[in-house]
Structure to design on (423 residues):
């Protein structure tokens, strides 16, 4: 994997050769920095790996992971599909001109209006999450004379802990097929499953594909419907974010090998036409190309915590640091000072005890005014940021020509208040 974070002259920290301190002075902090080259490489590597094993592969980038339009546009330019779960995400895909035939509409709750919007647009696939959703699609198709390509999300909760509320059981999947087969405007397209996020072994994917193939055979036997898409969702892990002491996490190469060989073997035993394999990666594509620059605003020593380093960004913009304490974001100070390394707690600016983004870190001595660079901050940060206490920060990109450009302005007080009335 290419690394954008290096030490340059005087061991000062640089991202793609750009001095971190200068970036922070010019653009302010907190600041997200996107490395465009790295983002493109990540996407292409992921896609090419799977295609080398299974040419009928489609990679649909998961918008929720980070729907910064700049990022969605880069993925579109590389030929990526869009996996969206709401009208908001659908409209971002439209804004960056993703072809509607490259949009997959997922999500546990799609409203009537959202379904109507997606059907009017003619998205390639709507993966239904319940029979009630399918019934809405049927109503819309009748009322407006619209067609829909429908996939069915399977509930995969028995493959492991975590994802219980999503998808349907086998019996409902079969009922869905019966409804689809009776509707002249709907076409059955395939089966979807998503196992969760940061999946650290290949086993659940193997089980999921076998399960999808067995259900697709039953669907074929009962309703004579062919499965055109086997969609295994996202969940591919970022090895650098896993807790220290975890077992070796397979590389993406291994996931590609296991997923594609399971699919190939599975379909070889049946007489169904090879389906498209759909992957919906989020974290694996956007985590590593994005860094977060934070400024140290104060330091102090308290009774129970020892030295605390307070920065200007916390769990408002790095929410997973709190949701999943095991996420050990790598935090690197811009300067290395001589002297003994110190054990510190790194805290954000929120009035919440939980607002800690680095616990028990041992770092070279840190002073007020230093810049800390948090690595792997592309996934579930910009799209999951809160407007709690602080406005959301600016985002810059280092483009392919090595120029730095602002791709999202920082929010102003006026931006935050512009929807409010009656005061
Ligand atoms: C349906 C679906 N697909 C893809 C993803 C992306 O997951 P990840 O970022 O772990 O790859 C998610 C994330 O929750 C999801 O719900």
């Amino acid at each position: 994997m290419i690394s954008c974070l290096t030490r340059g002259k005087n061991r000062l920290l640089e991202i793609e050769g750009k001095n971190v301190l200068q970036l922070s002075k010019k653009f302010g902090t907190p600041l997200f920095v996107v490395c465009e080259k790295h983002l493109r490489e990540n996407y292409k590597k992921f896609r090419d790996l799977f295609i080398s094993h299974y040419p009928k592969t489609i990679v649909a980038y998961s918008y929720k992971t980070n729907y910064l339009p700049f990022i969605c546009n880069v993925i579109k330019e590389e030929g990526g599909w869009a996996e969206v779960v709401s009208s908001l995400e659908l409209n971002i895909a439209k804004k960056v001109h993703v072809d509607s035939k490259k949009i997959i509409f997922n999500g546990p709750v799609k409203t009537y209006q959202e379904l109507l919007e997606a059907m009017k647009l003619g998205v390639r696939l709507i993966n239904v999450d319940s029979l009630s959703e399918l019934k809405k699609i049927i109503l819309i198709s009748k009322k407006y004379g619209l067609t829909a390509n429908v996939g069915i999300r399977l509930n995969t909760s028995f493959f492991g802990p975590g994802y219980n509320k999503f998808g349907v059981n086998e019996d409902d999947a079969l009922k869905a097929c019966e409804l689809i087969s009776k509707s002249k405007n709907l076409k059955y397209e395939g089966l979807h499953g998503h196992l969760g996020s940061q999946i650290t072994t290949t086993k659940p994917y193997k089980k999921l594909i076998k399960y999808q193939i067995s259900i697709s055979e039953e669907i074929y036997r009962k309703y004579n419907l062919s499965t055109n898409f086997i969609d295994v969702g996202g969940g591919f892990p970022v090895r650098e974010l896993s807790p220290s002491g975890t077992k070796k996490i397979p590389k993406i190469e291994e996931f590609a090998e296991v997923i594609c060989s399971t699919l190939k073997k599975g379909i070889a035993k049946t007489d169904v036409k090879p389906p498209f394999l759909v992957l919906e990666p989020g974290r694996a594509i956007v985590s590593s190309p994005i860094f977060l620059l934070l400024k140290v605003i104060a330091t102090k020593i308290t009774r129970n915590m020892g030295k605390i380093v307070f920065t200007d960004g916390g769990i408002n913009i790095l929410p997973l640091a709190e949701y999943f304490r095991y996420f050990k974001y790598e935090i690197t100070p811009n300067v290395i000072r001589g002297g003994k390394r110190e054990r510190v707690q790194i805290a954000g600016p929120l009035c919440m005890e939980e607002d800690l983004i680095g616990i028990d870190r041992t770092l070279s001595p840190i002073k007020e005014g230093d810049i800390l660079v948090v690595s792997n901050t592309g996934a579930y940060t910009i799209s999951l940021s809160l407007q709690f206490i602080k406005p959301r920060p600016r985002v810059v990109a280092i483009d392919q020509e090595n120029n730095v450009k602002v791709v999202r302005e920082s929010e102003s007080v006026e931006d935050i208040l512009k929807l409010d009335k009656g005061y």
